[in-house]
Design goal:
By secondary structure, the protein is mostly helical. The protein folds into two domains: about 35 residues; about 70 residues, Cytochrome Bc1 Complex, Chain D, domain 2. It contains five helices and no strands. Helix 2 packs across helix 5 and helix 4 packs across helix 5. It starts with a helix and ends with a helix.
Length: about 140
């Protein structure tokens, strides 16, 4: 009887240990599945190890035409969501507002256009150049 009791106790401990190991590996699997896939670093925040990107690519300032073609043309070439179309008199009308006002609108967003026209890596100077490029298209 003592052997049977010992065997049952050993079996019970084995099952409990197995369940504990299984629970640990389940917890680890869940933690692996829900872990963050990245992090956000803000320029000037040294806690990221200096990983924050500068607003302008290392190659220097891009041309106004490059910015327009790669960032603005998607909406301004077609007039999507009410965007003033490139090369139309709409830009002459907007030019009357002045560059400072147009740049402020581009930076903060206006109408359906999100802030910076989603060109988060564009400097203010690059945005201003792209605006000037579109203004010049109306002449």
């Amino acid at each position: 009887m003592k052997k049977i009791t010992s065997a049952l106790v050993a079996l019970g401990l084995g099952i409990a240990l197995s369940a504990s190991v299984q629970a640990t590996s389940n917890d680890e699997a869940v933690a692996e599945r829900i872990k963050a896939v990245g992090s956000v670093c803000i320029e000037g925040d040294d806690s990221c190890g200096g990983a924050a990107a500068a607003p302008v690519a290392a190659g220097g300032t891009r041309s106004s035409e490059e910015i327009y073609t790669s960032k603005c043309a998607g909406c301004h070439a077609t007039g999507a969501a009410g965007a003033p179309k490139y090369g139309t008199p709409e830009w002459a009308d907007r030019g009357a507002k002045g560059m400072e006002s147009l740049l402020a609108s581009a930076i903060s967003g206006v109408g359906a256009m999100p802030p910076r026209g989603l060109c988060m890596d564009c400097s203010d100077e690059e945005l201003q150049g792209a605006i000037q490029h579109m203004l010049d298209s109306s002449k």
